[in-house]
Amino acid sequence: MKYIVCQTPGSFLLKEKSPPSRKKGEALLKIVKVGICGTDLHAFSGNQAFFTYPRILGHELSAEILEIDENDKGIIAGDKVVIMPYVSCGKCIACRSGKPNCCQELKVLGIHTDGGMQEQFCVSVDLLIKATDLSHDEIAIVEPLAIGMHALGRAQIQPGENLVVMGCGPIGLGILKLAQLSGANVIALDISKDRLRYAKEVFGIKHTVLADSGAREKIAELTTNNMATAVFDATGNKKALESGIDYMAHGGRYILVGLSKESLSFHHPAIHAKETTLLCSRNATMEDFRQVIQVLRSGQFPTAAFVTHNIDFTSMINVFESWLDPKAGVIKAMVNF
Ligand SMILES: [Zn+2]
Ligand SMILES: [Zn+2]
Which of 141, 112, 140 is closest to 53 using CA atoms? Predict the structure, then answer.
């Protein structure tokens, strides 16, 4: 069978090996689609921290079951499945507290261990969710949307709240749409006019604000001077991360979803006066995945607008680099196996 490996930064190879053999408790899967995310782009560029090569990427996966033992999830050969790519230890204090998403020993398929950029792949049945009624594009976007669902859960968003989401990449757009569908008033913020136009025209986000020196005033106008009761950062950019408190209401929550590699600094009186609740949101849980699947089943999520690029795996190596250019307008690229 064929697979694609990121051999060293900047180099993918299309190679051949024998199909994997299934261990006890595992299912053998045929990979159908692999979504590409920021992590994959960073891994390819060589600026992903703690990343080792060679590595088979791919953690946003849609698959069909080729072989599986009888199981209590009722999953059988031929079913379409979502794969939860986070492998937690089940023993550490986070796992014991119902937070396997921030397990001390967390291993993510396609990042810490080999992922799904291969024609066949073996995965523990524990990580599978049956989703035969969803399309393969929908199945492959469950993981990135679950990141947003987890962030909304961390903030315990209520209908009617004013939210600001900084960053209109795939994670930010996911948070915006999921929050809007749950009844929140959402405001999108980005430094790119093109991204804001996409959020408004294609994603139906009514309020978009350019992240410049006038942003605070515009958000004040849109919230009758109250500012946003929850602000989400989906940029991972130090400058953006340090500006989020300006858009937050007194008594509000600030939720960090994007990851920066730097130290952040806040003016203490500014965060103290607002009695800021600072929340980090890491990965997602099985429950977040299930909630996203429910939203996709309802047909309310604009999957076709989210998946901007689709390409056959044999051609991926030649075009991957072009996806790094913001001009390519990639929200979510899919590699078809
Ligand atoms: Zn991802
Ligand atoms: Zn653990």
Answer: 112
The bound ligand whose nearest atom lies closest to the alpha carbon of 59 is 1
Question: What mean pLDDT value characterizes the chain?
Answer: 96
Q: Which bound ligand lies closest to the C-alpha atom of 100?
A: 2
Please tell me whether residues 78 and 188 are part of one structural domain. Answer: no
Q: How far is the CA of 120 from the centre of ligand 2 (A)?
A: 27
Residue 49: per-residue pLDDT: 73
Give per-residue pLDDT as tens, 257-283. 999 989 999 999 999 999 999 999 999
Do 132 and 296 contact (CB within 8 A), yes or no? no
What does the pLDDT read at residue 47? Answer: 84
Q: Give the amino acid at 228.
A: A
Range of the domain at 61: 2-140+302-336
Residue 98 Cα to ligand 2 middle (Å): 9
Q: How far is the CA of 323 from the centre of ligand 1 (A)?
A: 15
Kindly identify the ligand whose nearest atom is closest to the C-alpha of 105.
2
Q: Based on the structure, what is the number of domains in the chain?
A: 2
d(CA 332, CA 53): 24
